[in-house]
Amino acid sequence: MTEADVLLKASSVYDGVRMDNNTYGLATLSGGFFVINNQGHLIQTINQASGLSSNAIESVFIDRQGNIWLGPENSICHVEIVRFPIGT
After folding, report:
1. Is 33 exposed, middle or buried (0-12, 13-18, 19+ CB in 10 A)?
2. Could you tell me the CATH number of the domain that includes residue 40?
3. What predicted TM-score, i.e. pTM, was given to this entire model?
C-alpha cells in the first residue's frame, strides 16, 4: 500500500491521464488532482490549498504541447507539474 492509496480511496477518482511513461494524473471529485508514478507513489497534489477554485475536478486534458488543463467545477485551469528525473 502506498501513501496515494489512502488519498485516492477517500477522494473518488473521476478521470485520469497518462502523463508520460512514468507518471499518471488522477482527477478526483473531492481531493483535487494527484500525480502518481508508475509504482503508485504520490508525486504531487494540486487542490484548493494550492490555488484551484475547487477540489472537485471533473476533467483533465493534456494538449499537444504537454500542458495540463484541469476542469474544476465551473472553471478551467492550466497547471504546472513538478517533473523529477526518472528513477526518483
Report:
1. buried
2. 2.40.10
3. 0.86
